[in-house]
Structures are given as C-alpha cells and as structure tokens.
C-alpha cells in the first residue's frame, strides 16, 4: 500500500548552555532584553514532522513517499534519506532558500529557547498525486507548509485516499474554518491534549463537537497514554514503559508512524494505537528524533506482556 507523508523536513540544531537562563535575565530589564549565552557546542540532527514519521515507518518495514520541500543545504539530509531507501520524488528543491531549521538552546534545567526558520517550508511541495497512484493508499498530513495542509485534504478526498490530519504546531496559523474543514474530511484527527484545546478555541467548537467531525479522533496524553474515540465509543491506550526518558521530542511522530503502519497492515484501531505507543517508547530513550534503532523482532518482543504481537 502506498503511504504519503506530508509535513516538514528540518535540521534540528541543538546547543547546550551549561548555566541557567534565569541567572542571566533581569526581570526588570525585559523591555531592553539583550543576552548572549555561551554554549558548549552544537549538534545537528535530522528532524521535521515528515522526516521523523518517514524514518519510523522505515524501521517498521515501510517505504513512504515524503511530500515536502527542502533547500540548498539539503545534501546531508538527502544522503540520509537515500540510505534509508526512500524515494525523493515527492520533495521539492527550493534552491534560493535554506532547509527549515530549528535552533534550540537548552539550559541545565532543561528550559529551552528556540528559533525556527521555515526556509523552504514556505513553499508547497507541488507533487501531483495522480489517479494511477491511489490503488490502496493512505496518508498523513502533519505540520508543514500551510498550503499543503489545506489543499492536500481536498486532493486526498477526491482520490478516496483516507488521511490522518495532524495540524500540531501550525494550529495558530490556520483559521478556524480551515481547521474545521480539514478535520471533518479526515479519517483520523490526531493531536495531544493541549493542541485539542487550541483547536477548540480556534474553531469555537466544544471538545465533543471536534471529536464528532472525523471518523476517528485520537488524543495523545504523553506518559498517560492516549484516548481513541470513534462510532463505537472510547478506548484508552496505555503508554509503554520505557527504560529511561532521555528526550521526549519526536515521540509524537513515532506514535503516528506506528499508528499508520498498523492501519495500513489492516489492524484494528486499538492494536494500531498500541503500535504507536510502542514506537514512541523507543524514541524517547534516545536524544534526537531519528537516533533510535530497532529491528522488527526487537519491536515485537520488547513488551509482550503489555501489547502482545498481533502479527
């Protein structure tokens, strides 16, 4: 089955400040704030919602097509994706822009200051999905270019391709009408509990009204697991125990990849959500969103008492 993954491709450039931000910010001088943090170094990681989801899908044995845009500095990321065996035909190259980048500085108390340059993400991917590519397909639309996020739902619906809608960090940039339309056309709407509140505020709908728009609504709750709602009622999915939480960044993308993989393989909703929970557990045990590794045997054997093996 063809899997389309729309969203961002980005470099995560992570810096560590050995002190505390609070020790260098004077509350009574915030109107003329001018601070400089001397960091210990810089680590560059591959990230972005589309890249992260696609990476986890590869670990799960799938070969998704990424729909996104990248810039003139994409070379290292391109090599990384090629090594994963992924096609690049759905990625638009924007030569006059840099690839999107998140510049993250973390202090010793894990407080973060982040700057994000959308760069090439300002441009839609422009990849044309034809009728010949729809035989047994499913898609996920994650946070990325706003035009892609609002036009791809129409395209997927026209081609009878069920899609998961995950507006995430782009919720404030979308209008209430856009959110309502994209969610209503989705097979699944997924968000965390904070994002759900943001959607309710933007659309003017209650949580119950939002959950009634798509066929299925999934709300992730971090270490508390997730909740799935469909026409058959509500199901609670437990989080998977982890050895050590090193970095929760990217866990949501890993969950979405596991969910999508399970649905593509024909699993029931609860089993697919448990696949998502399992993938997320591997992710949080490493720093970075694409640093964890597992084989399929490791994936299925690690938590047999909690999730079993539905293969």
Automatic annotation (TrEMBL):
Q: Which SUPFAM superfamilies match?
A: Ribokinase-like
Q: Which Gene3D superfamilies match?
A: 3.40.1190.20
Could you list this entry's UniProt keywords, alphabetically sorted: Kinase, Transferase
Q: Does the keyword Lyase apply?
A: no
TM region positions: none
CDD domains, per database record: ribokinase_group_A (cd01942)
Positions of the Carbohydrate kinase PfkB domain: 42-291
Any GO MF annotation of the entry: kinase activity
Please give the name of this protein: Putative Adenosine kinase
Taxonomic source organism: Megalodesulfovibrio gigas (strain ATCC 19364 / DSM 1382 / NCIMB 9332 / VKM B-1759) (Desulfovibrio gigas)
